[in-house]
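Narrative of activities, Objective 1.

The group set out to show that a structural description can be obtained from nothing but a protein's sequence at a throughput compatible with the screening campaign. Below is one input-output pair from the validation batch, recorded exactly as produced.
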Amino acid sequence: MSWLELTIQTKESDTESVSDFLEQANAVSITWKAADEQALFEPDLNTTPLWQRVEVNALFSEDTSMSDLMAALRREFDDKTILKSSFKVVPDKCWERVWLDDFKAMRFGKRLWVCPTTMEPPDPAGVIVRLDPGLAFGTGTHPSTALCLEWLDAHVQSGQTLIDYGCGSGILAIAALKCGAKKVFAVDHDQQAIEATQANARQNAILPEQISCLFPQQLVQDIKVDVLMANILAKPLMDLAKLFKQHLKKDGLCVLAGILSEQVESIQQCYVEQGFSCVDVQHKHEWARIVFSLPNTLRT
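Output recorded for this entry:
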Protein backbone atom coordinates (compact mmCIF):
# COMPACT_ATOMS: atom_id res chain seq x y z
CA MET A 1 0.00 0.00 0.00
CA SER A 2 1.17 3.53 -0.78
CA TRP A 3 0.23 6.88 0.71
CA LEU A 4 -0.23 10.37 -0.71
CA GLU A 5 1.73 13.01 1.21
CA LEU A 6 0.61 16.62 0.96
CA THR A 7 3.14 19.24 2.08
CA ILE A 8 2.02 22.78 2.81
CA GLN A 9 3.98 25.78 4.02
CA THR A 10 1.98 28.29 6.02
CA LYS A 11 2.33 30.96 8.69
CA GLU A 12 2.32 30.20 12.40
CA SER A 13 -1.05 31.93 12.83
CA ASP A 14 -2.68 29.73 10.16
CA THR A 15 -1.25 26.35 11.19
CA GLU A 16 -4.22 25.27 13.29
CA SER A 17 -6.85 26.19 10.71
CA VAL A 18 -4.96 24.46 7.88
CA SER A 19 -4.50 21.35 10.02
CA ASP A 20 -8.18 21.32 10.98
CA PHE A 21 -9.11 21.46 7.29
CA LEU A 22 -6.79 18.54 6.47
CA GLU A 23 -8.19 16.51 9.35
CA GLN A 24 -11.72 17.11 8.09
CA ALA A 25 -10.49 15.97 4.66
CA ASN A 26 -9.64 12.56 6.19
CA ALA A 27 -5.88 12.91 6.63
CA VAL A 28 -4.61 9.84 8.51
CA SER A 29 -1.74 11.77 10.07
CA ILE A 30 -0.61 15.39 10.31
CA THR A 31 2.84 16.58 11.41
CA TRP A 32 4.38 20.03 11.82
CA LYS A 33 8.00 21.07 11.49
CA ALA A 34 10.01 24.20 10.85
CA ALA A 35 9.92 25.47 7.28
CA ASP A 36 13.19 27.33 7.88
CA GLU A 37 16.15 27.25 10.27
CA GLN A 38 14.42 28.96 13.20
CA ALA A 39 15.11 27.09 16.46
CA LEU A 40 12.83 26.73 19.49
CA PHE A 41 14.74 25.55 22.55
CA GLU A 42 12.83 26.15 25.77
CA PRO A 43 9.26 27.50 25.67
CA ASP A 44 7.52 29.09 28.60
CA LEU A 45 5.44 26.84 30.82
CA ASN A 46 2.02 25.88 29.39
CA THR A 47 2.84 27.32 25.97
CA THR A 48 3.26 25.61 22.58
CA PRO A 49 5.10 28.08 20.37
CA LEU A 50 5.58 27.40 16.68
CA TRP A 51 8.00 28.57 14.06
CA GLN A 52 7.17 31.71 12.05
CA ARG A 53 6.82 29.53 8.95
CA VAL A 54 5.52 26.01 9.45
CA GLU A 55 5.62 23.00 7.15
CA VAL A 56 2.49 20.90 7.54
CA ASN A 57 2.73 17.33 6.24
CA ALA A 58 -0.46 15.28 5.86
CA LEU A 59 -0.79 11.65 4.77
CA PHE A 60 -3.84 10.45 2.84
CA SER A 61 -4.89 7.03 1.59
CA GLU A 62 -3.81 6.24 -1.96
CA ASP A 63 -7.37 6.42 -3.31
CA THR A 64 -7.69 10.11 -2.33
CA SER A 65 -8.29 12.45 -5.27
CA MET A 66 -5.47 14.91 -4.83
CA SER A 67 -6.83 17.22 -7.51
CA ASP A 68 -10.15 17.51 -5.66
CA LEU A 69 -8.34 18.04 -2.36
CA MET A 70 -6.14 20.79 -3.78
CA ALA A 71 -9.15 22.50 -5.35
CA ALA A 72 -10.97 22.44 -2.01
CA LEU A 73 -7.85 23.76 -0.27
CA ARG A 74 -7.64 26.70 -2.68
CA ARG A 75 -11.32 27.51 -2.18
CA GLU A 76 -10.84 27.59 1.59
CA PHE A 77 -7.52 29.49 1.78
CA ASP A 78 -5.80 32.17 -0.28
CA ASP A 79 -2.13 32.55 -1.24
CA LYS A 80 -1.39 34.47 1.96
CA THR A 81 -2.21 31.31 3.91
CA ILE A 82 -0.99 28.56 1.56
CA LEU A 83 2.51 29.83 0.81
CA LYS A 84 3.64 26.64 -0.94
CA SER A 85 2.13 23.24 -1.60
CA SER A 86 3.17 19.94 -3.18
CA PHE A 87 2.33 16.26 -2.96
CA LYS A 88 4.04 12.97 -3.66
CA VAL A 89 3.45 9.22 -3.43
CA VAL A 90 5.09 7.61 -0.39
CA PRO A 91 5.59 3.80 -0.43
CA ASP A 92 4.58 2.05 2.78
CA LYS A 93 7.48 0.94 5.00
CA CYS A 94 8.17 -0.39 8.45
CA TRP A 95 9.09 3.08 9.70
CA GLU A 96 10.43 1.87 13.05
CA ARG A 97 12.89 -0.38 11.18
CA VAL A 98 13.95 2.52 8.92
CA TRP A 99 14.74 4.54 12.05
CA LEU A 100 16.73 1.66 13.55
CA ASP A 101 18.71 1.31 10.32
CA ASP A 102 19.90 4.91 10.78
CA PHE A 103 20.76 4.47 14.48
CA LYS A 104 24.38 3.36 14.80
CA ALA A 105 26.61 2.40 17.72
CA MET A 106 28.07 5.44 19.49
CA ARG A 107 30.99 5.71 21.92
CA PHE A 108 31.02 8.12 24.85
CA GLY A 109 34.32 8.68 26.60
CA LYS A 110 36.85 5.87 26.53
CA ARG A 111 34.78 2.74 27.10
CA LEU A 112 31.02 3.39 27.08
CA TRP A 113 29.05 2.36 23.99
CA VAL A 114 25.35 2.75 23.22
CA CYS A 115 24.37 0.15 20.62
CA PRO A 116 21.07 -0.84 18.99
CA THR A 117 20.00 -4.39 19.78
CA THR A 118 20.49 -5.42 16.15
CA MET A 119 24.21 -4.50 16.04
CA GLU A 120 27.30 -6.14 17.43
CA PRO A 121 29.27 -3.66 19.54
CA PRO A 122 32.45 -2.41 17.84
CA ASP A 123 34.35 -3.02 21.08
CA PRO A 124 33.03 -6.17 22.81
CA ALA A 125 35.30 -5.43 25.79
CA GLY A 126 33.71 -2.02 26.33
CA VAL A 127 30.81 -1.05 28.56
CA ILE A 128 27.77 -1.74 26.40
CA VAL A 129 24.29 -0.24 26.78
CA ARG A 130 21.75 -1.83 24.45
CA LEU A 131 19.09 0.65 23.38
CA ASP A 132 16.74 1.14 20.45
CA PRO A 133 15.05 4.45 19.64
CA GLY A 134 11.62 4.68 21.21
CA LEU A 135 8.96 7.12 22.31
CA ALA A 136 10.72 8.16 25.54
CA PHE A 137 13.49 10.73 25.20
CA GLY A 138 17.15 9.70 25.24
CA THR A 139 19.36 7.66 22.89
CA GLY A 140 22.64 9.56 23.23
CA THR A 141 22.31 11.45 19.96
CA HIS A 142 21.49 14.78 21.65
CA PRO A 143 24.53 16.79 22.85
CA SER A 144 23.20 17.14 26.41
CA THR A 145 22.71 13.36 26.71
CA ALA A 146 26.17 12.82 25.25
CA LEU A 147 27.67 15.16 27.86
CA CYS A 148 26.04 13.13 30.63
CA LEU A 149 27.20 9.80 29.20
CA GLU A 150 30.76 11.09 28.89
CA TRP A 151 30.67 12.16 32.55
CA LEU A 152 29.38 8.76 33.65
CA ASP A 153 32.11 6.98 31.70
CA ALA A 154 34.83 9.05 33.37
CA HIS A 155 33.55 9.53 36.92
CA VAL A 156 31.17 6.87 38.22
CA GLN A 157 32.82 4.87 40.99
CA SER A 158 32.06 1.30 41.95
CA GLY A 159 29.42 1.04 44.63
CA GLN A 160 28.01 4.55 44.24
CA THR A 161 24.32 5.38 44.35
CA LEU A 162 22.70 7.75 41.86
CA ILE A 163 19.41 9.50 41.07
CA ASP A 164 18.58 9.96 37.38
CA TYR A 165 15.96 12.71 37.56
CA GLY A 166 13.97 12.87 34.32
CA CYS A 167 15.07 9.40 33.25
CA GLY A 168 13.26 9.29 29.88
CA SER A 169 14.42 6.08 28.20
CA GLY A 170 16.60 5.15 31.18
CA ILE A 171 19.81 5.50 29.18
CA LEU A 172 21.68 7.41 31.91
CA ALA A 173 20.45 5.17 34.73
CA ILE A 174 21.48 2.03 32.84
CA ALA A 175 24.82 3.52 31.80
CA ALA A 176 25.56 4.45 35.42
CA LEU A 177 24.91 0.87 36.54
CA LYS A 178 26.99 -0.55 33.71
CA CYS A 179 29.83 1.79 34.70
CA GLY A 180 29.85 0.48 38.26
CA ALA A 181 27.08 2.19 40.26
CA LYS A 182 25.45 -0.04 42.87
CA LYS A 183 21.95 1.42 42.87
CA VAL A 184 20.04 3.93 40.75
CA PHE A 185 16.73 5.66 41.38
CA ALA A 186 15.21 6.52 37.97
CA VAL A 187 12.65 9.30 38.36
CA ASP A 188 10.17 10.67 35.83
CA HIS A 189 6.67 12.15 35.88
CA ASP A 190 5.76 10.37 32.61
CA GLN A 191 4.31 6.84 32.83
CA GLN A 192 5.68 6.09 29.37
CA ALA A 193 9.19 7.01 30.50
CA ILE A 194 8.90 4.75 33.56
CA GLU A 195 7.78 1.85 31.40
CA ALA A 196 10.53 2.51 28.83
CA THR A 197 13.19 2.59 31.56
CA GLN A 198 11.94 -0.67 33.05
CA ALA A 199 11.89 -2.37 29.63
CA ASN A 200 15.36 -1.09 28.70
CA ALA A 201 16.73 -2.16 32.09
CA ARG A 202 15.47 -5.70 31.53
CA GLN A 203 16.96 -5.68 28.03
CA ASN A 204 20.34 -4.81 29.56
CA ALA A 205 20.12 -7.54 32.23
CA ILE A 206 19.83 -5.00 35.06
CA LEU A 207 18.62 -6.73 38.22
CA PRO A 208 15.43 -5.41 39.87
CA GLU A 209 17.30 -4.59 43.07
CA GLN A 210 19.74 -2.38 41.12
CA ILE A 211 17.14 0.09 39.82
CA SER A 212 14.01 1.65 41.28
CA CYS A 213 11.73 3.49 38.85
CA LEU A 214 9.77 6.20 40.65
CA PHE A 215 7.41 9.08 40.08
CA PRO A 216 8.66 12.32 41.69
CA GLN A 217 6.22 12.02 44.62
CA GLN A 218 7.69 8.58 45.40
CA LEU A 219 11.19 9.98 45.90
CA VAL A 220 11.01 10.05 49.68
CA GLN A 221 13.20 12.42 51.67
CA ASP A 222 15.43 9.76 53.23
CA ILE A 223 16.76 8.69 49.80
CA LYS A 224 20.23 10.24 49.65
CA VAL A 225 22.76 9.43 46.95
CA ASP A 226 26.35 10.06 45.91
CA VAL A 227 25.39 11.54 42.53
CA LEU A 228 22.24 13.23 41.31
CA MET A 229 22.04 13.62 37.54
CA ALA A 230 19.31 15.63 35.80
CA ASN A 231 19.22 16.11 32.04
CA ILE A 232 16.06 18.19 31.71
CA LEU A 233 15.66 21.97 31.11
CA ALA A 234 16.97 25.10 32.81
CA LYS A 235 13.72 26.31 34.39
CA PRO A 236 12.85 23.03 36.17
CA LEU A 237 16.51 22.60 37.14
CA MET A 238 16.35 25.92 38.99
CA ASP A 239 12.98 25.08 40.54
CA LEU A 240 14.37 21.74 41.79
CA ALA A 241 17.65 23.01 43.28
CA LYS A 242 16.43 22.83 46.89
CA LEU A 243 14.96 19.35 46.39
CA PHE A 244 18.15 18.07 44.78
CA LYS A 245 20.15 19.35 47.75
CA GLN A 246 18.01 17.28 50.11
CA HIS A 247 18.77 14.05 48.24
CA LEU A 248 22.58 14.31 48.17
CA LYS A 249 24.93 12.70 50.65
CA LYS A 250 27.77 14.71 52.16
CA ASP A 251 30.21 15.78 49.45
CA GLY A 252 27.71 14.57 46.85
CA LEU A 253 27.80 15.70 43.22
CA CYS A 254 24.97 17.21 41.21
CA VAL A 255 25.40 16.80 37.45
CA LEU A 256 23.04 18.98 35.40
CA ALA A 257 22.45 19.08 31.65
CA GLY A 258 19.79 20.11 29.16
CA ILE A 259 21.14 23.64 29.60
CA LEU A 260 21.82 26.11 26.82
CA SER A 261 25.22 27.79 27.04
CA GLU A 262 23.64 31.20 27.65
CA GLN A 263 21.74 29.74 30.65
CA VAL A 264 24.85 28.56 32.51
CA GLU A 265 25.29 31.72 34.57
CA SER A 266 21.68 31.67 35.80
CA ILE A 267 21.96 28.00 36.82
CA GLN A 268 25.24 28.65 38.62
CA GLN A 269 23.79 31.56 40.57
CA CYS A 270 20.72 29.55 41.59
CA TYR A 271 22.73 26.56 42.87
CA VAL A 272 25.39 28.64 44.62
CA GLU A 273 22.57 30.33 46.53
CA GLN A 274 21.54 26.83 47.72
CA GLY A 275 25.05 26.15 49.03
CA PHE A 276 26.51 24.28 46.06
CA SER A 277 29.98 24.90 44.63
CA CYS A 278 30.49 24.77 40.86
CA VAL A 279 33.36 22.42 40.06
CA ASP A 280 33.12 21.96 36.28
CA VAL A 281 31.39 23.31 33.17
CA GLN A 282 31.65 21.62 29.78
CA HIS A 283 30.07 22.61 26.46
CA LYS A 284 29.05 20.66 23.36
CA HIS A 285 27.66 22.76 20.53
CA GLU A 286 25.16 25.18 22.13
CA TRP A 287 24.54 22.91 25.16
CA ALA A 288 26.29 22.72 28.53
CA ARG A 289 26.83 20.36 31.46
CA ILE A 290 27.48 21.76 34.93
CA VAL A 291 28.79 19.76 37.89
CA PHE A 292 28.20 21.04 41.41
CA SER A 293 29.49 19.68 44.71
CA LEU A 294 27.73 20.00 48.03
CA PRO A 295 30.28 20.43 50.85
CA ASN A 296 29.36 18.54 54.01
CA THR A 297 29.32 21.67 56.16
CA LEU A 298 26.64 23.28 53.96
CA ARG A 299 24.27 20.32 53.58
CA THR A 300 20.98 20.42 55.51
